[in-house]
Amino acid sequence: MHTASIYGELAEDALQYGWDITKNSHDWHKMVGNIQNHIKSQNWKIRVDLREKNVTYYNEYASFVDQHTVKSVNKRGAERTVTADKFVLAMGGRPNYPDVPGAEDYAITSDDIFSLKYHPGKTLCVGASYISLECAGFLN
Predict the structure, then answer these.
(1) Which 3 state secondary structure label does DSSP give 89?
(2) Interatomic CA distance for residues 61 and 49, integer angstroms
(3) What contacts 47, CB < 8 A, 6 or more positions away?
(4) Alpha-carbon distance 129 to 136, whole Å?
(5) At 86, is the secondary structure helix, strand, or coil?
(6) Spatial separation of the C-alpha atoms in residues 91 and 53, rounded to whole Å
(7) pLDDT digits (tens, 9 = 90+) for 28-45
(8) 80 has which bridge partners?
């Protein structure tokens, strides 16, 4: 019954992710664009929230020098040393390729799938996380 109660809302939401339920078809470009826009808006909201709370955000690789000092390097290779009473570490995660021959030649990551200009067709999703299940769902 729970599923039946949300079908109407899901059908409306489906349009924004490229599904045309009247034709039982899917628009890959529409889905990719809306997902990329959603991710960008979430990242922007996080940045605004941090700024409002006077949190300085660095998108850099870093390592501790001591208890109150971090040395970091940005994507251009510029280094900086930051001292603070407290640090918040939010590493996030990035998918990586398994250490098997041909993985980088014949596979893409869940981060890269939304850069494709076309639906990849029949796809094997490898992974044990919800991201792999989500990808399998919309690639079906």
Answers:
(1) coil
(2) 22
(3) 57
(4) 11
(5) coil
(6) 19
(7) 888 888 888 988 999 999
(8) 72
- What are 105's two structure tokens? 């030649």
3-state SS assignment for residue 20: strand
Chain CA centroid to CA 35, Å: 9
Nearest CA-CA partner of 117 in 22, 57, 27, 21? 27
Tokens 């079906």 — which residue? 140
Quote the pTM value.
0.66
Tokens of 19: 């599904």
For 104-121, the DSSP string reads: HHH---TTTGGG-SS---
Cβ neighbour number for residue 82 with a 10 Å cutoff: 15
SS3 state at 80: strand
Q: pLDDT tens, 62-95?
A: 999 999 999 999 999 999 999 999 988 887 778 8
